[in-house]
């Protein structure tokens, strides 16, 4: 998730709204430590998260006591993210922030001797990702002996972020429970790319459609381009790519 401004903006909004309470719950000793460590963790300069927080501080409906960055109009996407996250509780935002940070800290490949499942295909991988519990372990073949540990934490985070909605149709397929599914835009079984920028949350119907027809994904327009010329565009997004 390196350089992902949208993920960092979610964390910055959380810090803006809840200040020292958020700092403490994320396990940092003070604000300065949080700003520096979070920024560097995501490959940014040490003041990046502070500056982004200041943008949220300056919004008219911000809960922050700080004046914030009022010397320029807020970015359109900052307003959009703040408006969307207003619907999240403190507990939900804390879970999101913690899980995004935890995922970034634990990116390394881990060689393990015993796992629950050994996956050879993308279908195997996504079935396990979407239908096994969070304690499930996935490993992929890497050469003759090594395997790769699959970190499910980012999937859990993104499903929470969209609250069961499909990013394409912007609908919740079931009122009974969250049946949304994670799809790797570039197949994880081939690329081992589990970055947030490579994951989209879909309803079962759109997920099956995309696997059946294998469209190309255009990151500039956030659209799936099908072989027959049809286009399915992302309707809701708070994590793919960078803020404009």
TrEMBL record:
Superkingdom field: Bacteria
CDD domains per record: HNHc
Naturally occurring in which organism (per UniProt): Campylobacter concisus ATCC 51562
Domain called HNH nuclease: residue spans: 155-208
Protein's recorded name: HNH nuclease domain-containing protein
């Amino acid at each position: 998730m390196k350089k992902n401004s949208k993920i960092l903006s979610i964390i910055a909004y959380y810090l803006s709204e809840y200040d020292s309470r958020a700092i403490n719950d994320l396990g940092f000793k003070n604000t300065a430590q949080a700003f520096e460590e979070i920024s560097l963790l995501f490959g940014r300069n040490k003041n990046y998260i502070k500056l982004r927080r200041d943008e949220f501080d300056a919004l008219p409906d911000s809960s922050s006591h700080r004046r914030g960055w009022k010397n320029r109009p807020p970015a359109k996407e900052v307003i959009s993210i703040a408006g969307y996250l207003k619907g999240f509780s403190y507990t939900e935002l804390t879970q999101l922030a913690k899980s995004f940070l935890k995922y970034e800290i634990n990116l390394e490949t881990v060689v393990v001797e015993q796992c629950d499942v050994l996956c050879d295909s993308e279908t195997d991988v996504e079935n396990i990702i979407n239908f096994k519990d969070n304690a499930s372990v996935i490993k992929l073949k890497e050469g003759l002996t090594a395997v790769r540990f699959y970190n499910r934490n980012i999937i859990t985070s993104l499903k929470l972020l969209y609250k069961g909605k499909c990013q394409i149709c912007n609908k919740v397929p079931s009122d009974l429970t969250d049946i949304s599914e994670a799809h790797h835009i570039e197949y994880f079984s081939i690329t081992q790319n589990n970055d947030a920028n490579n994951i989209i949350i879909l309803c079962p119907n759109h997920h099956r459609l995309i696997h059946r027809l294998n469209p190309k994904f255009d990151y500039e327009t956030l659209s799936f381009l099908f072989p027959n010329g049809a286009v399915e565009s992302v309707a809701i997004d708070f994590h793919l790519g960078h803020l404009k």
